[in-house]
Amino acid sequence: MRLAIIPARGGSKRIPRKNIKNFCGQPMLAYPIKAALQSGVVDKVVVSTDDDEIAAVARQYGAEVPFMRSPTLADDYTGTSAVIRDAIQQLQDLGWTVNYCACVYATTPLLAANVIRAGLELLQQQDADYVFTGARFSFPIQRALLITENGGIAPFDPSNIGKRSQDLTPAYHDAGQLYWGKASSWLDKNKTIFSQQSRMLVLPDHLVQDIDTPEDWYRAELLYQVLQQEKI
User: Which of 17, 36, 148, 175 lies in disulfide reach of 133, CB 3.0 to 4.6 Å?
Assistant: First the structure.
Protein backbone atom coordinates (compact mmCIF):
# COMPACT_ATOMS: atom_id res chain seq x y z
CA MET A 1 0.00 0.00 0.00
CA ARG A 2 1.14 3.53 -0.80
CA LEU A 3 0.08 6.14 1.73
CA ALA A 4 0.18 9.88 2.12
CA ILE A 5 0.36 10.82 5.78
CA ILE A 6 -0.33 14.45 6.69
CA PRO A 7 0.84 15.57 10.15
CA ALA A 8 -1.62 18.22 11.38
CA ARG A 9 -1.52 18.98 15.07
CA GLY A 10 -3.81 21.50 16.68
CA GLY A 11 -1.26 23.60 18.55
CA SER A 12 0.05 26.10 16.00
CA LYS A 13 1.35 29.19 17.80
CA ARG A 14 2.37 31.83 15.22
CA ILE A 15 -0.75 31.38 13.07
CA PRO A 16 -3.45 29.94 15.38
CA ARG A 17 -5.38 27.01 13.88
CA LYS A 18 -3.44 27.45 10.63
CA ASN A 19 -3.99 23.85 9.51
CA ILE A 20 -7.72 24.51 9.05
CA LYS A 21 -7.70 28.30 8.64
CA ASN A 22 -9.47 29.52 5.50
CA PHE A 23 -7.07 29.83 2.58
CA CYS A 24 -8.54 31.20 -0.65
CA GLY A 25 -11.95 29.74 0.15
CA GLN A 26 -11.11 26.37 1.70
CA PRO A 27 -9.47 25.07 4.87
CA MET A 28 -5.71 24.90 4.40
CA LEU A 29 -5.73 21.16 5.05
CA ALA A 30 -8.03 20.57 2.06
CA TYR A 31 -5.28 21.39 -0.44
CA PRO A 32 -2.73 18.68 0.36
CA ILE A 33 -5.51 16.11 0.80
CA LYS A 34 -6.87 16.88 -2.67
CA ALA A 35 -3.42 16.90 -4.26
CA ALA A 36 -2.60 13.49 -2.80
CA LEU A 37 -5.93 11.99 -3.86
CA GLN A 38 -5.59 13.44 -7.36
CA SER A 39 -2.05 12.15 -7.80
CA GLY A 40 -3.27 8.68 -8.69
CA VAL A 41 -0.33 7.04 -6.90
CA VAL A 42 -1.66 7.13 -3.34
CA ASP A 43 -4.03 4.43 -2.09
CA LYS A 44 -5.10 6.27 1.06
CA VAL A 45 -4.56 9.67 2.66
CA VAL A 46 -4.21 9.57 6.44
CA VAL A 47 -4.14 12.61 8.71
CA SER A 48 -2.23 12.26 11.97
CA THR A 49 -3.73 14.73 14.44
CA ASP A 50 -4.47 15.22 18.11
CA ASP A 51 -7.37 17.58 17.36
CA ASP A 52 -11.02 16.58 16.85
CA GLU A 53 -11.86 19.59 14.68
CA ILE A 54 -8.90 18.92 12.36
CA ALA A 55 -9.94 15.26 12.18
CA ALA A 56 -13.45 16.28 11.10
CA VAL A 57 -12.13 18.57 8.35
CA ALA A 58 -9.77 15.84 7.17
CA ARG A 59 -12.61 13.36 6.79
CA GLN A 60 -14.77 15.96 5.06
CA TYR A 61 -12.21 16.28 2.25
CA GLY A 62 -11.58 12.57 1.78
CA ALA A 63 -8.80 11.68 4.20
CA GLU A 64 -8.95 9.01 6.87
CA VAL A 65 -8.20 9.41 10.58
CA PRO A 66 -7.90 5.81 11.85
CA PHE A 67 -6.30 6.91 15.14
CA MET A 68 -5.73 10.04 17.19
CA ARG A 69 -2.15 11.11 17.77
CA SER A 70 -0.84 10.96 21.33
CA PRO A 71 -0.36 14.39 22.98
CA THR A 72 3.27 13.41 23.63
CA LEU A 73 3.82 13.51 19.85
CA ALA A 74 1.96 16.79 19.35
CA ASP A 75 4.21 19.23 21.21
CA ASP A 76 6.55 21.91 19.83
CA TYR A 77 9.61 19.67 19.93
CA THR A 78 8.66 16.35 18.32
CA GLY A 79 10.14 15.94 14.86
CA THR A 80 8.24 14.90 11.75
CA SER A 81 10.04 11.57 11.38
CA ALA A 82 8.85 10.47 14.82
CA VAL A 83 5.27 11.36 13.91
CA ILE A 84 5.38 9.45 10.61
CA ARG A 85 7.06 6.46 12.27
CA ASP A 86 4.32 6.41 14.90
CA ALA A 87 1.61 6.64 12.23
CA ILE A 88 3.01 3.73 10.23
CA GLN A 89 3.29 1.62 13.38
CA GLN A 90 -0.28 2.48 14.38
CA LEU A 91 -1.56 1.53 10.93
CA GLN A 92 0.40 -1.72 10.91
CA ASP A 93 -1.17 -2.57 14.27
CA LEU A 94 -4.55 -2.07 12.57
CA GLY A 95 -3.57 -4.60 9.91
CA TRP A 96 -2.52 -2.21 7.13
CA THR A 97 0.36 -3.22 4.86
CA VAL A 98 2.48 -0.14 4.12
CA ASN A 99 5.13 -0.25 1.40
CA TYR A 100 5.69 3.41 0.56
CA CYS A 101 4.74 6.49 2.52
CA ALA A 102 4.67 10.16 1.56
CA CYS A 103 4.77 12.69 4.35
CA VAL A 104 2.89 15.72 3.06
CA TYR A 105 2.85 18.83 5.21
CA ALA A 106 -0.55 20.30 6.03
CA THR A 107 0.28 23.84 4.89
CA THR A 108 1.17 23.08 1.25
CA PRO A 109 -1.46 24.73 -0.98
CA LEU A 110 1.09 25.06 -3.80
CA LEU A 111 1.88 21.34 -3.92
CA ALA A 112 0.52 19.78 -7.11
CA ALA A 113 -0.54 16.21 -7.82
CA ASN A 114 2.09 15.85 -10.55
CA VAL A 115 4.86 16.63 -8.05
CA ILE A 116 3.62 13.85 -5.78
CA ARG A 117 3.69 11.46 -8.75
CA ALA A 118 7.17 12.59 -9.76
CA GLY A 119 8.46 12.09 -6.23
CA LEU A 120 7.35 8.48 -6.08
CA GLU A 121 8.70 7.80 -9.56
CA LEU A 122 12.12 9.17 -8.59
CA LEU A 123 12.13 7.16 -5.36
CA GLN A 124 11.46 3.94 -7.22
CA GLN A 125 13.80 4.65 -10.15
CA GLN A 126 16.72 5.49 -7.88
CA ASP A 127 15.89 2.87 -5.23
CA ALA A 128 16.48 5.67 -2.73
CA ASP A 129 15.58 5.70 0.95
CA TYR A 130 13.82 9.05 0.57
CA VAL A 131 12.91 11.66 -2.02
CA PHE A 132 12.01 15.17 -0.89
CA THR A 133 11.15 18.45 -2.58
CA GLY A 134 13.76 21.20 -2.52
CA ALA A 135 14.54 24.53 -4.14
CA ARG A 136 17.68 26.45 -5.04
CA PHE A 137 18.64 29.47 -2.96
CA SER A 138 18.10 32.55 -5.13
CA PHE A 139 21.29 34.21 -3.83
CA PRO A 140 24.64 32.50 -3.13
CA ILE A 141 24.72 31.53 0.53
CA GLN A 142 28.53 31.82 0.47
CA ARG A 143 28.12 35.61 0.16
CA ALA A 144 25.81 36.00 3.15
CA LEU A 145 26.43 38.87 5.57
CA LEU A 146 26.32 39.08 9.37
CA ILE A 147 25.54 42.04 11.63
CA THR A 148 28.12 42.13 14.39
CA GLU A 149 27.48 43.01 18.04
CA ASN A 150 28.52 46.64 17.50
CA GLY A 151 26.24 47.04 14.48
CA GLY A 152 28.93 46.56 11.86
CA ILE A 153 28.92 44.12 8.95
CA ALA A 154 31.01 40.98 8.49
CA PRO A 155 30.96 38.36 5.73
CA PHE A 156 29.64 34.96 6.78
CA ASP A 157 32.32 33.32 4.61
CA PRO A 158 35.27 35.70 4.05
CA SER A 159 36.94 33.32 1.59
CA ASN A 160 34.03 33.58 -0.86
CA ILE A 161 32.63 37.08 -0.33
CA GLY A 162 34.52 38.51 -3.29
CA LYS A 163 33.77 35.76 -5.78
CA ARG A 164 31.30 36.03 -8.65
CA SER A 165 27.95 34.29 -8.20
CA GLN A 166 28.59 32.04 -11.20
CA ASP A 167 31.84 30.79 -9.63
CA LEU A 168 30.13 29.55 -6.47
CA THR A 169 28.54 26.14 -5.96
CA PRO A 170 24.71 26.33 -6.04
CA ALA A 171 23.04 25.59 -2.71
CA TYR A 172 19.57 24.20 -2.08
CA HIS A 173 17.08 24.10 0.76
CA ASP A 174 14.28 21.80 1.84
CA ALA A 175 10.99 23.04 0.37
CA GLY A 176 9.03 21.80 3.40
CA GLN A 177 6.32 20.11 1.33
CA LEU A 178 6.76 16.46 0.42
CA TYR A 179 8.89 13.55 1.66
CA TRP A 180 8.47 10.15 -0.01
CA GLY A 181 10.10 7.18 1.65
CA LYS A 182 9.98 3.44 1.83
CA ALA A 183 8.07 2.34 4.91
CA SER A 184 11.21 0.51 6.02
CA SER A 185 13.18 3.76 5.81
CA TRP A 186 10.70 5.67 7.97
CA LEU A 187 10.75 2.89 10.57
CA ASP A 188 14.56 2.78 10.73
CA LYS A 189 15.76 5.55 13.07
CA ASN A 190 19.24 5.32 11.55
CA LYS A 191 18.03 6.34 8.10
CA THR A 192 17.78 10.10 7.89
CA ILE A 193 16.10 12.12 5.14
CA PHE A 194 19.10 14.32 4.34
CA SER A 195 21.68 11.72 3.40
CA GLN A 196 23.59 10.20 0.50
CA GLN A 197 20.80 7.66 0.11
CA SER A 198 18.19 10.37 -0.53
CA ARG A 199 17.33 12.31 -3.67
CA MET A 200 15.99 15.83 -4.12
CA LEU A 201 13.17 16.76 -6.46
CA VAL A 202 14.02 20.38 -7.28
CA LEU A 203 11.07 22.75 -7.68
CA PRO A 204 10.98 26.25 -9.19
CA ASP A 205 10.91 29.10 -6.67
CA HIS A 206 7.33 30.12 -7.44
CA LEU A 207 6.07 26.75 -6.17
CA VAL A 208 7.79 27.05 -2.79
CA GLN A 209 6.58 29.15 0.14
CA ASP A 210 7.03 28.47 3.85
CA ILE A 211 3.96 29.48 5.84
CA ASP A 212 5.07 30.33 9.36
CA THR A 213 4.00 33.98 9.70
CA PRO A 214 1.03 36.12 8.57
CA GLU A 215 3.32 37.63 5.91
CA ASP A 216 4.13 34.15 4.61
CA TRP A 217 0.41 33.38 4.47
CA TYR A 218 -0.29 36.52 2.42
CA ARG A 219 2.48 35.72 -0.08
CA ALA A 220 1.24 32.14 -0.40
CA GLU A 221 -2.27 33.36 -1.20
CA LEU A 222 -0.92 35.68 -3.89
CA LEU A 223 1.15 32.90 -5.43
CA TYR A 224 -1.79 30.50 -5.34
CA GLN A 225 -4.09 33.03 -7.03
CA VAL A 226 -1.56 33.70 -9.79
CA LEU A 227 -1.08 29.98 -10.40
CA GLN A 228 -4.84 29.48 -10.60
CA GLN A 229 -5.13 32.29 -13.16
CA GLU A 230 -2.48 30.58 -15.31
CA LYS A 231 -4.66 27.45 -15.47
CA ILE A 232 -7.62 29.35 -16.91
Answer: 175
Q: Please, what is the Cα angle at 65 between 128 and 40, to 5 degrees?
A: 45
Tell whether 156 is covered by a domain: no
Q: What Rg, from alpha-carbon coordinates, does the chain have? A: 19
Alpha-carbon distances of 18 from 8, 10, 30, 106, 232, rounded to whole Å: 9, 8, 12, 9, 28
Residue 212 lies in a domain: yes
For every one of its 232 residues, what pLDDT tens digit does the chain have, with 9 covering 90 and above? 999 999 999 988 789 999 999 999 999 999 999 999 999 999 999 999 999 999 999 999 999 999 999 999 999 889 999 999 999 999 999 999 999 999 999 999 999 999 999 999 999 999 999 999 999 999 999 999 999 999 999 999 999 999 999 999 999 999 999 999 999 999 999 999 999 999 999 999 999 999 999 999 999 999 999 999 877 5
Three-state SS at 47: strand
Domain assignment present for residue 79? The answer is yes
CATH number for position 199: 3.90.550.10
CA distance 188 to 210: 28
Domain that holds residue 225: 2-136+172-231
Alpha carbons 114 and 118: distance in angstroms, whole number: 6
